[in-house]
């Protein structure tokens, strides 16, 4: 499967799932209303057969936020379904400047990939065209080559064990694991991720303020 669910959609059925759950048992961890990407992902995972493979584009926030999104990441890693994550450049998509990744899941990993996740940082593999960034052909070829051979490339690609990822509380930010020498220790603060998290938090605060105003008005009218 290849998919690109809507980013930050608020009309994906949160209220219905919250009230009555998922009758098909797909959505085990209900994400926030403003971040429904992990609901789409859980539906996709439930649709994979025993040999299924999935590549899905997701915003970076789902790879480091807590709550239900953390629970989904934990389930995926513990089930050894994550084969690779490819960090994309910023500003690739119209209407969404936030950074994104391609998450690759596989129910039938090759032996060399079992218990490990290939991390690829293609954040620099772009060229500017008009008002958007576009993936370069050589950058795409390099990602495909790195995915096929699974070898460490300093600062670009490396394998992280599921144990390493669990030790980092199932944080799946690529740059945490892809660095000089392939080290996966310490804290990495990615500026793009930090900005995206700040914007999302600010948006959620505004929404919370509006909900509070509605509650106060209803109390005044009562």
Do you know the CATH architecture?
A: 3-Layer(aba) Sandwich
Shape: globular
Alpha-beta content class:
alpha/beta
Q: What's the N-to-C terminus distance? A: 52 Å
Number of structural units classed as domains:
1
CATH top level assignment: Alpha Beta
Task: Write the element-wise H/E pattern from the N-terminal end onward.
Answer: EHHEHEEEEEHEHHH
Number of helices: 7
Share in β-strands:
15-25%
The CATH homologous superfamily is named: Vaccinia Virus protein VP39
Mean pLDDT: 87
User: What is the total tally of β strands?
Assistant: 8
Q: The CATH topology is what? A: Rossmann fold
Widest sheet: strand ordering: 1-2-4-3-5-8
Q: Main beta sheet, described?
A: 6 strands, mixed
What would the keywords be for this entry?
37% helix, globular, two-stranded antiparallel ribbon, 7 helices, alpha/beta, 6-stranded mixed beta sheet, 222 residues, Rossmann fold
Describe the protein.
This protein has 222 residues and is α/β, with parallel strands linked by helices. The chain has a single domain, classed as Vaccinia Virus protein VP39 (Rossmann fold, 3-Layer(aba) Sandwich), CATH 3.40.50.150. It is built from seven helices and eight strands. The protein has a six-stranded mixed beta sheet, with helices on both faces. The longest helix has 31 residues. The chain is globular.
Furnish the topology, listing elements before pairings.
Layout: E1 2-3, H1 14-20, H2 37-46, E2 53-59, H3 67-78, E3 82-87, E4 100-106, E5 116-121, E6 126-129, E7 132-135, H4 137-149, E8 157-161, H5 162-167, H6 174-177, H7 191-221
Parallel strand pairs: 1-2, 3-5
Antiparallel strand pairs: 2-4, 3-4, 5-8, 6-7
